[in-house]
Write a structure and sequence with these properties.
heterodimer, A: 463 residues, alpha+beta, tRNA-splicing ligase RtcB, 8-stranded mixed beta sheet, 25% strand, B: 136 residues, Archease, Possible Chaperone, Chain: A, domain 1, 5-stranded antiparallel beta sheet, 3-stranded antiparallel beta sheet, 2 helices, 8 strands, 42% strand
């Protein structure tokens, strides 16, 4: 595929690249990252996204883009609220997979001597939910409240504070969520998994502030050099997966009725204002609220674990919580005109000006805290990337290395890891992902979000 | 028979059998092998599978999603599959397995869903072939 270079960080797939594209696709990447991106089908998928009916502006690909199912991961598409379509594949199976960062009043020096105990306590108190149920045994009514209200439910049960909600995107609740739009199967899958971490690339990390790039912003967000933070990465678990599965099947059928055609069935979509489109958005909002509640309940468990290992004076306030798999109705200025658009962000983080953006690296490597910039509003509907992005397949990652070796290697670097599975270590080893520094350089260099602090892990809990 | 296909972030299953039914059973075993090491699981509990859909693709995907549903809701890992009837509208059958026990069993990778992405199901020289990618 021939890409037109715009500058060191921007590459264009012109709409003339293939029939059916309604707009250009813009890829944010450096030359070396682009080389890695070219190894899979993600650019082809970005071109397919440019075929979504009603797409406004360009289809966008973030520097961590990699091949997904229909939509690439790291893909962004805004569609007109009136004429556009909603695509569950443009949100992904893990609806409102996202990241929450907690700051603390602890320092690296205080935590280091008790680190092993802390990691064990976190592993015990935050279940992975794999082959085991959540310790929370909630009623069907409570589940419906979670789907409708999000973490407000957790507050009602003494597992959070108003300040937590104030520091969560949408205060953890997308309006219009309808528990009745969520199938019985989705609820059955999700109910035993509320307050669980999951596996795969989901994790909980104890980190410290390693370097500060923007002193004022760091102080404003309660970060100082060598202060301890906690990063939580998880989503809506089986509930969200089932909502996506249900609606891909339903919209696959509806597309024929609406005369819509796309090159991949996994891109199934329906007009936003169709009954099917509306139903999906109600269910997606409910699943998103479930995910925010999940991260809130995990936060509660993390606070308990820290208090057990340290003392009651430990404070772990939420810095921010942001979704990276979601579709949201927003107002954006497009060619000087205000438009209501539905922004699909699949493996991409909202990055409005001055909003915290978290870009976790692979296991054992640094994560970044950035703030969204005006350029993102102008170019990417206020979006930045969400992670490092895989470069090795899972089996390639596993080759020639054992879980024990990875654990030992990380321990030699002062990082204690506790994982439920061997695969959780081998498949997610640091080399399986792109270099986080290269990805963050592009986001910062292109002006989508600016670096505030670099965070390094010392404790990792995963499924 | 099945083999796992892997790209950067995809895990796929290429399953073959003498018949379409056999190929689906192989694909089911392939999916289970992504979730856990199937060797120690015994066929102690049985569940009915019902996978309806407007076409063969949707039916096969829904059948495979039954495996994920029972794992999430009851921690069941299946090692035996039987297809009773495959009509134009649905597949009905049974699966037998055992509850996952972290003490005795090895969990591998959580699977979110079977997808339509690059799906194939067609006659092959030696019977039938199904190719399906799952989101992990």
């Amino acid at each position: 595929m021939h890409l037109e270079k715009i500058d060191d960080y921007r590459w264009l797939i012109p709409r003339t690249y293939k029939a059916g594209m309604l707009t250009d696709a813009l890829v944010y990447a450096s030359e070396p990252l682009l080389e890695a991106i070219r190894r899979d089908q993600s650019l082809e998928q970005a071109a397919n996204v440019a075929m979504l009916p009603g797409i406004v502006g360009r289809a966008l690909a973030m520097p961590d883009i990699h091949q997904g199912y229909g939509f690439p991961i790291g893909g962004v598409a805004a569609v007109d609220e009136q004429d556009g379509v909603v695509s569950p594949g443009g949100v992904g199976f893990d609806i409102n997979c996202g990241v929450r960062l907690l700051s603390s009043n602890l320092t690296l020096k205080e935590v280091r001597p008790k680190l092993r105990d802390l990691v064990h306590q976190l592993f015990r108190d935050v279940p992975t939910g794999i082959g085991q149920s959540s310790r929370l045994n909630i009623s069907d009514n409570d589940l419906n409240r979670v789907l409708e209200k999000g973490p407000q439910w957790a507050l009602e049960h003494d597992m959070g504070s108003e300040a937590d909600l104030d520091h969560t995107e949408e205060r953890g609740c997308i309006a219009g969520a309808d528990p009745h739009a969520v199938s019985a199967r989705a609820k059955q899958r999700g109910k035993p998994q509320l307050a669980t971490l999951g596996s795969g690339n989901h994790f909980l990390e104890v980190q410290y502030v390693d370097e500060i790039f923007h002193e004022k912003a760091a102080t404003e967000h309660n970060l100082s050099k060598e202060s301890i933070v906690v990063l939580i990465h998880t989503g809506s678990r089986g509930l969200g997966h089932q909502v996506c599965t249900d609606f891909v099947a339903q919209l696959d059928q509806a597309m024929r009725r609406y005369g819509l055609h796309l090159p991949d069935r996994q891109l199934a979509c329906a007009p936003i204002h169709s009954p099917e489109g509306q139903r999906y958005l109600q269910a997606m909002a409910a699943a998103a609220n479930f995910a925010w509640t999940n991260r809130q309940l995990i936060t509660h468990a993390v606070r308990g674990a820290f208090k057990r290992i340290f003392d009651e004076t430990v404070r772990l306030p939420v810095i921010y919580d942001v979704a990276h798999n979601i579709a949201k109705l927003e107002t954006h200025s497009v060619n000087g005109k205000k438009r209501r658009v539905l922004v699909h962000r699949k493996g991409a983080t909202r990055a409005f000006p001055e909003q915290p953006v978290f870009i976790p690296g692979s296991m054992g490597t640094a994560s970044y805290f950035l703030l969204g910039q005006e350029t993102a509003l102008r170019e990417t509907f206020g979006t930045a990337c969400h992670g490092a992005g895989r470069v090795l397949s899972r089996s390639a990652a596993k080759k020639g290395v054992t879980a024990k070796e990875i654990q030992k290697e990380l321990e030699s670097r002062g990082i204690i890891v506790q994982s439920l599975t061997r695969e959780g270590l081998t498949e997610e080893k640091p080399e399986a992902y792109k270099d986080i520094e290269a990805v963050v350089d592009v986001v910062h260099g292109a002006g989508l979000a600016s670096r505030v602090a670099r965070l390094r892990p010392i404790g990792v809990v995963k499924g | 028979m099945f083999e796992l296909l892997e790209h950067t972030s995809d895990v796929g299953i290429r399953a073959t059998g003498d018949t379409r039914e056999d190929a689906l059973i192989s694909a089911s075993q392939g999916l289970v092998s992504i979730l856990a090491d199937p060797a120690p699981f015994r066929p102690l509990e049985e569940r009915y599978f019902k996978a309806s859909g407007p076409d063969e693709t949707a039916q096969i995907i829904n059948w495979l999603n039954e495996i994920l549903f029972f794992f999430d809701t009851e921690a069941l890992v299946f090692v035996q599959f039987e297809i009773d009837i495959w009509t134009a509208g649905e597949i009905t059958g049974r699966a037998r397995g055992e509850r996952f026990d972290a003490g005795r069993h090895e969990f591998r990778t959580a699977v979110k869903a079977a997808t339509y992405h690059q799906f194939e199901s067609h006659p092959a020289p030696d019977g039938w072939e199904i190719r399906v990618f799952v989101d992990v």
